[in-house]
C-alpha cells in the first residue's frame, strides 16, 4: 500500500504561473520581430528595393496568447508584391514568372530560435 500526504497547496506555483502568463516576454518578441524583418528584407529580391524595405511586424496580445506577425506593405495594383515574388504571377503578354520561396527559408531560423529559447525558459525551473 502506498500513501501520499501533503501539507499546503499549490497556490504559490499557481500565482507564479499566472504572473508569468500575464507578463509575457514582449521585449523578447520585439527582438525577434526586428530580426525577422531584417531576414525578410535581406532575402527579398531587389529590383526597386521597395518590397524589401516594406517589411514590418506586429505583436498582438490576446487573452491567452501573444502572437508575432510579419507583413509587407508594398501593394501594386491592389496586389501584395511580396506574394507575387513568393508564388509567381502571370505577365501581361500571357507568360508566367515563376515564384521563389524566399519567405519560409528567411523566417524559419527566427521561429527556431523562438522555440529554442522558449523551451530553455520552460525547462530551467
Task: Quickly describe the structure.
Helices cover 47% and strands 19% of the residues.
Give an overview in words.
With 125 residues, the protein is an alpha+beta fold. The chain has one domain. The protein is 47% helix and 19% strand. It has four helices and six strands, in the order ααββββαββα. The strands form three sheets. A two-stranded antiparallel ribbon has the order 1-2. A two-stranded antiparallel ribbon has the order 3-4. It has a two-stranded antiparallel ribbon with strand order 5-6. A hairpin with a 2-residue loop joins strand 3 and strand 4. The longest helix is centred in the C-terminal third of the chain and has 21 residues. It is elongated, with a radius of gyration of 22 Å. The model has no long low-confidence stretch (mean pLDDT 84).
Major sheet: size, sense and barrel closure?
2 strands, antiparallel
Mean pLDDT rating: 84
Oligomeric status: single chain
Number of E-state strands: 6
Indicate the radius of gyration in whole angstroms: 22 Å
**Within the largest sheet, what's the order of strands?**
1-2
Amino acid at each position: 500500500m502506498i500513501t501520499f500526504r501533503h501539507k499546503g497547496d499549490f497556490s504559490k506555483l499557481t500565482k507564479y504561473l499566472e504572473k508569468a502568463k500575464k507578463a509575457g516576454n514582449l521585449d523578447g518578441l520585439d527582438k525577434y520581430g526586428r530580426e525577422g524583418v531584417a531576414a525578410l528584407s535581406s532575402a527579398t529580391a531587389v529590383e526597386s528595393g521597395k518590397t524589401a524595405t516594406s517589411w514590418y511586424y506586429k505583436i498582438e496580445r490576446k487573452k491567452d496568447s501573444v502572437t508575432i506577425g510579419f507583413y509587407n506593405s508594398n501593394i501594386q495594383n491592389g496586389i501584395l508584391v511580396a506574394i507575387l515574388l513568393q508564388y509567381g504571377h502571370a505577365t501581361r503578354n500571357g507568360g508566367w514568372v515563376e515564384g521563389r520561396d524566399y519567405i519560409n527559408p528567411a523566417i524559419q531560423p527566427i521561429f527556431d530560435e523562438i522555440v529554442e529559447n522558449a523551451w530553455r525558459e520552460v525547462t530551467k525551473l
